[in-house]
């Protein structure tokens, strides 16, 4: 299929351009010093930054901020749509309202990029971006040089946003999701090669356990509860409409990856605030709330993931709105009265369905922490790639992209490309 082949090549070309921008250093950065210090920096926060940015942020590259400003802006706008009546009215206007919300998301992305770039450059200038680095990361720490760094990173974020929208419009899959997928997968070869050199036994164990984790994530991500909906027949003029049966697919993991990201971000705040709390309080926070092998850290992590899962599902799925739409088009759930009873039934089903979904997210988030506590080997812990966040990103984006390719193929033929 020439059309599908062209879309795939277009997508791969933009992904290659994205990776080029992630290794291209910004003006005024000492590349050798950054390479030495980034290779020596290890730990939970650095590994998470390395994973979610594809190694670009610690290199101070042109695309150092990656897709995180846009992802954060999208989540914030999604939350504000529920709270702000004006945004909710725009969402209900259809395509024109969604275009306005997308434009607001772009503006918020630029604002967040300015804030993030200023923070990263300030940390690099003061030597706190990579603690323990003896060499300065910037060749010139003057005001003009710092301004050039910030402007370059913000412009890089705008280019990343443009690349993602191009992939969505003219390529295959969701552009921003594919860029995040690329960031996560990019660090895997380095992790696995280091693991193989350090401990071949640990490499084999992690590869086998990683295969089981990926298979379990695929199984749960595909699981859904199908609520049947029956539409009554209507006589319009001389024609009979309706009478069809369909269903509402409610996924087990309705919240996706957002609860894990929120919980991870909140748990990094105590580690960042520990130096400002004094010697005793800072030492207690560093020992119990900044290390993944602490039972208190694991307990708080699980509670945050479960709480954010219920919170995010409650604001992204509105049972009252869904019930009203079903009633508006002459539909009903068999055995349930239309209107308020249908909304209560959908809320009840969603609440019961979110419980195993939240437990699944909590277990998935605990996999790397438990592995760290069992292995007790710092060289192995630094390179454990099958964390909950990375596996969720890889599996969800991979499944969604495969579905879109299948849909493109089935427009021309009945059988898909996977047989």
What are the salient characteristics of this protein?
mainly alpha; 5 strands; single chain; globular; two-stranded antiparallel ribbon; Preprotein translocase SecY subunit; 3-stranded antiparallel sheet; 419 residues
Compile the SSE list and pairings.
Layout: H1 2-23, H2 31-40, H3 44-52, H4 68-83, H5 85-92, H6 95-126, H7 143-170, H8 175-186, H9 188-198, H10 200-222, E1 224-231, E2 233-236, E3 239-242, E4 245-251, H11 258-273, H12 279-288, H13 295-316, H14 319-328, E5 331-332, H15 340-375, H16 378-381, H17 388-410
Antiparallel strand pairs: 1-4, 1-5, 2-3
Helix pairs in contact: 1-7, 4-5, 4-6, 5-6, 6-7, 7-8, 8-17, 9-10, 10-17, 11-13, 13-15, 14-15
Structure notes:
The strands form two sheets. This protein has a three-stranded antiparallel β-sheet. It has 17 helices and five strands. The model is unreliable at 378-383 (pLDDT under 50). Helix content is 70%, strand content 6%. It folds into two domains: 1-186, SecY subunit domain (Preprotein translocase SecY subunit), CATH 1.10.3370.10; 191-419, SecY subunit domain (Preprotein translocase SecY subunit). The longest helix is centred in the C-terminal third of the chain and has 36 residues, at 340-375. It is globular, with a radius of gyration of 24 Å. It starts with a helix and ends in a 9-residue tail after the last helix. By secondary structure, it is mainly α.
